[in-house]
From TrEMBL:
This is Phosphoglycerate mutase family protein. It comes from Methylobacterium mesophilicum SR1.6/6. InterPro entries: His_PPase_superfam. Gene3D superfamilies: Phosphoglycerate mutase-like.
Length: 140
């Protein structure tokens, strides 16, 4: 049957300045401070009493792989995942690399409830295009 709702978000902030990893070390593959702030803001967005969308039961984010070392998508959902994991209510999947949008969306379609996908912005159109009965998707 598939999920009730699929939410696809881009990773949070990156910039010309180096990012910072979860331990506070400079890392060019990580979010900048503003990105970590936005990542933290996903918690009340999904968990507040008047949240505009249901809490995800599954979170997908891209794998770190050779030639694709960015951890920004994983870091974007890390605070939300930590809260949901502590409550025992979320599946987490980081098996798919950025180009594997077809395989990713096939797996997404096996889930139920609300699914959150955090992906690199340039690949989001390919994620949407891989859905069954996808509408026309702009290239940017």
């Amino acid at each position: 049957m598939g999920p009730d709702r699929i939410l696809i978000i881009r990773h949070a902030e990156q910039h010309d300045e180096p990012g910072i990893d979860g331990d506070g070390r400079f890392d060019r593959h990580s979010l900048i401070v503003r990105g970590w702030q936005r990542a933290g803001a996903l918690i009340p967005f999904f968990r507040s009493a008047d949240a505009p969308v249901p809490t995800p039961g599954a979170i997908f984010t891209s794998a770190v792989a050779p030639g694709s070392e960015s951890r920004r998508s994983q870091q974007t959902v890390a605070p939300l995942h930590a809260v949901l994991r502590d409550g025992g209510s979320v599946a987490y999947d980081e098996r798919f690399t950025k180009p594997e949008t077809g395989a990713l969306m096939s797996e997404v379609m096996t889930r139920h409830g609300t699914v959150l996908v955090a992906w690199e912005h340039s690949r989001i159109p390919a994620c949407v295009a891989a859905l069954p009965n996808a509408p026309p998707v702009p290239s940017e």
